[in-house]
Amino acid sequence: MTENVARRGFLLGGAVVGAGALVTACTGNEPQAAVSSPAPAATEGNDVPGEKVVIGFSAPAADHGWIAAIAKNAEATAKRYGDVEFRPVQPTNDVNQQISAVESLIAAKVNALVILPNDGQQLNQIARRASDAGIPVVNLDRVFPDKLSYRTWIGGDNYGMGVAAGHYIGAALKEKNVADPVIVEIQGIATLPLTQDRSKGFADALKTYGFRVTAQQDAQFTVETGTSVASNLLQAHKKIDALWNHDDDQGVGVLAAINEAGRNEFVMVGGAGSANAMREIQKPDSVLKATVTYSPSMASSAVKLARLIAQGKGMGDLVENQVPQSITLASETITRENVERYLPLGFES
Predict the structure, then answer these.
(1) For the segment 270-303, what is each residue's pLDDT rounded down to a tens digit?
(2) In sequence order, what are the beta bridge partners of 272?
(3) Distance of alpha carbon 307 from alpha carbon 11, whole angstroms
C-alpha cells in the first residue's frame, strides 16, 4: 500500500477528507464497489466552479480491497466537479506499464497528475519528468524520494499506525497484568519502507510498556499468504498474548487460520480499517478487538488538491495562499466502542 512517510510534520487529519462518504470495494481479481451515499453538489468555498482542468490519474491494479477503494474514491470525487475532466489510465501492477501510462498523460498535457506509484523509487524519474514539464504532481501514498518530482504528497501515517497498534496492545496486556507476553506481528511486504515504518512505530510503542515483538513475518498483502503465515505462527507458538496484523485485506486469511486452529487466547489488532474487520470487531467472541486506520479517503483528497493546484487556489480553511507540500492523515483506533461511527466509512476486503 504506501512508502516512507518521513514528512509527517504537517498533519491535518481529516482537513481535506474526500467525497463525503468513502467508497467500499472488495478484494480479489474482480473487485466490486459502491458509494455508500451520494456526495452533495460542490457549491461553497474551494468547491466554487473555476477554470476547467484535466486531471490525470494512475494507480496500481485494483486486485486488493484498499487499492480498489482508492480508484473508486478518486473517480467519485472528480465527478462532483463540473470543472474537472478526469482522465484515468489503465491500472497495472507492472512498473514499466505504469511508466508508459504516465508518459501518455504527460504527452496529453494534462493540467495535473495524481499518481499512486507501484514503487516510488522506480517511478520517481517519470514523475520528475512531469514536474519538469510544468505538470504538478500530487503524489498519493507511496512517496517519490525526490521532492522535485511532486508538488504535494498526501498519505497515511504508517509510523502512526504502528504506534496506535502498539499502544492498544500494550495497554490491554498491562490491564491483564501480563509480565512477559508473546507478541506476534504479521507484516505486509517486509521490504517496503511503509512496512518498516509500521514495524518501527509498533516496536517503539511497545517499548514504553516494557514489551517487545516475539516473532515477525510478512504476508505480502494477500489473503492466501495471510492464511499460510498465520498458520505457521500459530503452530510455532502454542500460546500467544497479542497479534498485530498490518493489513485488513490479508487479515481475512489471518482470521481464517485463527478460526481453523480454534485459537482465541490472544488479542488481535488489524490495520487499514476495512468494513469486514469492523464487523468482526462487533462480535463479542472475536479475537479481533481493534483496527488502526489507513483510509483510502486520501484518494478523494488527492483529486481535490490536484484541482486546487491546477486552478492556482489554496485551501480555504488555511491562511496560506497555496496548498501545503505535505499532508499526513491521522491513524485512528477503531474499537467495539466506536465502531458504529466508522463502519459506514469502511472498504470491503
Answers:
(1) 999 999 999 999 999 999 999 999 999 999 999 9
(2) 293
(3) 20
What's the rounded Cα separation, in Å, for the pair 266 and 162? Answer: 18
Helix runs in 26-64, H state only: none
Packing angle between helix 95-107 and helix 120-132, nearest 10 degrees?
Answer: 10
Residue 188 lies in a domain: yes
Query: Rounded to an integer, what distance in angstroms lies between the CA atom of residue 340 and that of residue 24?
Result: 16
> Which pLDDT tens digit goes with each residue over 72-128?
999 999 999 999 999 999 999 999 999 999 999 999 999 999 999 999 999 999 999
Burial 132-157 (b: 16+ CB within 10 A, else e): eeebbbbbbbbbbeeeebbbbbbbbb
Residue 200 lies in a domain: yes
Look at residue 14 and tell me if it is in a domain.
no
- Half-sphere CA count of 343, side-chain side, radius 13 A: 13
Contact criterion met (CB below 8 Å) for 234 and 258? yes
Q: What pTM value is reported for the model?
A: 0.82
Instruction: Give me the number of domains the chain comprises.
Output: 2
Torsions phi, psi of 7, nearest 5? -100, 65
How far is residue 81 CA from its own chain's centroid?
24
Look up the domain containing 198 and give its range.
Answer: 158-293
DSSP 136-196: -EEEESS--S-GGG-SEEEEE-HHHHHHHHHHHHHHHHHHTT-SS--EEEEES-TTSHHHH
DSSP code of residue 82: T
Residue 251 lies in a domain: yes
Gap between the Cα atoms of 4 and 8, Å rounded? 10
Cell digits of residue 278? 469492523
CATH number at residue 318: 3.40.50.2300
Q: How far is CA 195 from CA 2, 137, 255, 264, 318, in A?
A: 8, 24, 20, 26, 32
